[in-house]
Every structure is written in C-alpha cells, then in structure tokens.
Amino acid sequence: MISKKTRFLAHASIIAALYVVLTYLATLLGLSSNAVQIRFSEALTVLAAYTPAAIPGLFIGCFLSNIFAGGVIWDILFGSLATLLGALGTYALKKHKYLAPLPPIIANTLIVPFVLRYAYGAPGSIGYFMLTVGAGEVISCGILGILLITAVNKLENRINW
C-alpha cells in the first residue's frame, strides 16, 4: 500500500511535469509568451479543486517552466506566485468545481501585466496587458480548464486522489 505522503509527492510531481511539458508545447507553438499568453498548462490549475497535491505541483511546474523559457527573475518569481495564488484559490473553491478557473484567471490578470511592463519593458499599458493576459487566461483556465473538469468528473471514481 502506498502511503499518503508518497501519493501526495507522486501526484505533485506528475502535475509539475505535465505543467512543464504543456508549457513547452505552447512555447513551441508560439503561444506562451506573447501579450495574449495561452499556456495549455494553466488548465491544470483546476486540479487543485481535486487534490491539494496540485498546489505545489503547479507552483513548481510554473517555476521550472519560467526558468526553462529563459524568463527574467521577476517573471520566474511573480509568474510562479500568480500560479500559486490561483491554485490556493482554486483549492478553496473545491466544493464549487466549475468556479475553479476563476482564481488563476484573476491572479494572473492582476500580476502578470506588471511583469510584462516592468520586468520585460513591453510596450503597452497595464490596462492593455490586463485585457490581453486576462483573455489568454480565460482561454487557458476558463475554456480548457472547464473541459478538463468535465473529463476528470467523468473519471473521478477511477482516480485515486
């Protein structure tokens, strides 16, 4: 029998690895680092509504993804913090799974625009970046996240969280 601690670590590690791979895929497709950032990996934030192991998994996955992508230190720190805050908010909404995408959408929409403007010196206003980052998050967390919730709900009785 696998201990709870071992299962937790395994789930967190798998989620982190999936986050890195999905971010890399989005990067290869040119979707993950523009003003409208569509990271397929951000859909995984809804998993925090199912298991607390998703919280460190998402944070570590985002942290590693930002390092591998060559992000500046402020992006690595604050981008990862935005994902962590989103995952914590999602975990708090675990009884309302279809609201799970809202915390990461909000956290990224409020934090990432400042990273784009001040860490990267991207031309544009904070308001503009809030619109573009928010749009990407609605696609990544909202649309793709809801699709993931729907799939997980169908399989939940087969998954040993």
TrEMBL record:
<feature type="transmembrane region" description="Helical">
    <location>
        <begin position="12"/>
        <end position="31"/>
    </location>
</feature>
<keyword id="KW-1133">Transmembrane helix</keyword>
<feature type="transmembrane region" description="Helical">
    <location>
        <begin position="126"/>
        <end position="152"/>
    </location>
</feature>
<protein>
    <submittedName>
        <fullName>QueT transporter family protein</fullName>
    </submittedName>
</protein>
<keyword id="KW-0472">Membrane</keyword>
<dbReference type="Pfam" id="PF06177">
    <property type="entry name" value="QueT"/>
</dbReference>
<feature type="transmembrane region" description="Helical">
    <location>
        <begin position="100"/>
        <end position="120"/>
    </location>
</feature>
<feature type="transmembrane region" description="Helical">
    <location>
        <begin position="43"/>
        <end position="67"/>
    </location>
</feature>
<dbReference type="InterPro" id="IPR010387">
    <property type="entry name" value="QueT"/>
</dbReference>
<keyword id="KW-0812">Transmembrane</keyword>
<feature type="transmembrane region" description="Helical">
    <location>
        <begin position="73"/>
        <end position="93"/>
    </location>
</feature>
